[in-house]
Amino acid sequence: MATIPKKQTVAQSSDSDLTTLIKISKIVGGDIALVQGGGGNTSVKTSDNKYMFIKASGTALKDMSKDKGWRRINLASALSLLTDKSLTSLDTSTRETEVVNRLFSSCDDKELSCDHTARPSVEAQLHALLDKYIIHLHPDAVGAYVNAKNGKKLLDELFKNEKLPPLWVPY
Question: Is the pLDDT of residue 49 over 60?
Fold first, then answer.
């Protein structure tokens, strides 16, 4: 019986992960109740936990394909942004530019068929911290709460009996 070399197995796994990301993105991106202008972000980590495929900025979730709308990022490189204390000393504009540039540098997909000029989501570091699959959407109903002065209080009340309440990230 022939065995598949490890490198080939990882490539097949990565292909399967990308296929799953595209499928999830198209399903949620096709529901206008869940997205505003195609927005939101999706990501999936590879089985070896070395890479993450993430939606590229400027692409509608429903428009992702095998050749566009995503980037593959080296997870360790993306996570290093969170521990780099030098970034906190930069003014906001300089820091944003630096983070975007470092995320471009974190892309490890030269041999893959994608748009290599597409910018990975600026939320890639948050996605890198979380579990294997991340579906982060921008539904109108949630926007109404997060843009309200007392939005957190209203959501806390609305979900007070839920086992897993919504995660509120102050901005």
Answer: yes
Residue 57: closest CA among 73, 81, 39: 39
Which H helix or E strand runs over 161?
none
Contact (CB, 8 A) for 59 and 118: yes
Of 84, 91, 88, the residue nearest 105 (C-alpha): 84
CB atoms within 10 A of CB 119: 16
Rounded distance between C-alpha atoms, residue 38 and residue 30, angstroms: 8
Residue 12, both tokens: 């097949």
pLDDT in tens, 71-84: 999 999 999 999 99
- Helix, coil or strand: residue 126: helix
**pLDDT cut 90: percent of the chain above it:** 65
The partner residues of 71 in beta bridges, in order of sequence, read 54
Tokens of 88: 């906190």
